[in-house]
Specification:
- There is one protein chain.
- By secondary structure, the protein is α/β, with parallel strands linked by helices.
- Helices cover 38% and strands 23% of the residues.
- It has helices spanning 30-38, 56-63, 127-136, 149-154, 156-163, 173-180, 185-194, 234-246, 254-271, 278-281, 285-299, 303-308, 313-316; strands at residues 5-8, 12-17, 22-28, 44-50, 68-74, 80-85, 94-99, 119-122, 142-146, 168-172, 199-203, 209-213, 216-220.
- The strands form two sheets. A nine-stranded mixed beta sheet has the order 5-4-1-8-9-10-11-12-13, with helices on both faces.
- Helix 6 packs across helix 7 (185-194) and helix 8 packs antiparallel against helix 9.
Length: 317
């Protein structure tokens, strides 16, 4: 039986500028990207908030993927709106404007029917709110969270508390260094793992992602792409693929976590090929499976190949 996934996070409208194109009021938000990706693998339940200006047709787009959107609240006011710009490097966005709208005062109320969810993704929201959400979930099998530099700066203690209660933490390289107060990603990773999570995902943009656990680490490169349109939502799409795959596993072990990283990279690669959620929304299981196999072959040498081409074999015999 496939597990259910609960995501709690933002639905938004974005204004995005890249060196190639500019789009206004396109569908975005962490919960949207995550839901489109994870729904390829398992049933998804979404908890979020939108304002009067949020089009029902955009909620319907998410629902058409089989996502249960009954946890979306509609409140008087403006929806979350973000404006950002990328240069040719496309590694990170310059935020031009952020209007939280109704998201600013939102305290998530998880519907009773969602409280038995098996896997939970706490998207990037205030860590105290993440803790409140955890209190509403009965007995999740696995919980993952995403965060950002703002909360490390202003809510470090609260963030450490929520990290200690989840299984997987997802941050980018700069955030790991910032949390660990160190230049070393490895030292920062060790400090985060010491709080209690089973694994840390370090997002590296065009260089892929690294999985850290107590037993070791695993690196997966980004899928090589000829064209990137819009990097917005790559991290949340990664999380959707990562947790989506784990939802198909009865008792995920470290080998499953490594495979999940590959699934996450695959979903992120489709997300960045088109603007807004268009790339991840159009993704099918067949296309994801094809790219998964291609990336797996790219990073796998194989035991026989290693044995045949080991320059140290003669030395160690």
């Amino acid at each position: 039986m496939t597990n259910t996934i609960l995501v709690v996070g933002s639905l938004a409208y974005d204004d995005v500028q890249t060196p190639f194109e500019r789009r206004r009021n396109v569908l975005g938000g962490a919960a949207c990207y995550f839901s489109f990706a994870s729904s390829l693998y398992a049933p998804v339940r979404l908890v979020g908030v939108v304002g009067d200006d949020f089009e029902q047709s955009d909620i319907d787009r998410v629902a058409r993927k089989g996502v249960d959107v009954s946890g979306i609240e509609r409140r008087p006011g403006r929806s979350f709106h973000w404006s950002g710009r990328y240069d040719y490097e496309l590694g990170s966005a310059e935020t031009l404007a952020t209007d939280l709208g109704v998201f600013a005062t939102w305290r998530p109320e998880v519907p009773e029917a969602f409280r038995d969810s098996d896997l939970v993704f706490l998207a990037n929201i205030h860590p105290e709110i993440q803790l409140e959400v955890l209190e509403q979930i009965r007995q999740p099998k696995l919980v993952a969270l995403d965060s950002m530099n703002l909360w490390i700066d202003t809510q470090r203690d609260a963030l450490a508390r929520v990290m200690s209660r989840v299984d997987i933490v997802s941050l980018n390289e700069g955030e790991v260094r910032q949390f660990g107060r160190t230049f070393s990603v490895l030292r920062g990773a060790r400090e985060i793992l010491a709080l209690g999570p089973r694994a840390l995902i370090v997002k590296r943009g065009e260089y892929g992602a690294v999985l850290f656990t107590e037993t070791g680490s695993f690196w997966a490169p980004a899928f090589p792409l000829e064209k990137i349109q819009d990097p917005t939502g790559a991290g949340d799409s990664f999380a959707g693929g990562f947790l989506g795959y784990l939802a198909t596993c009865e008792t995920p072990d470290d080998a499953h976590l490594r495979r999940a990283v590959i699934h996450g990279v695959v979903c992120a690669s489709f997300a960045v090929e088109r603007f807004s959620v268009e790339g991840i929304e159009a993704l099918t299981r067949d296309r994801a499976a094809e790219r998964y196999r291609a990336l797996r072959d790219l990073v796998t040498i194989g035991a026989e190949a290693v044995a045949e081409d080991d320059p140290f074999a003669a030395v160690t015999r």
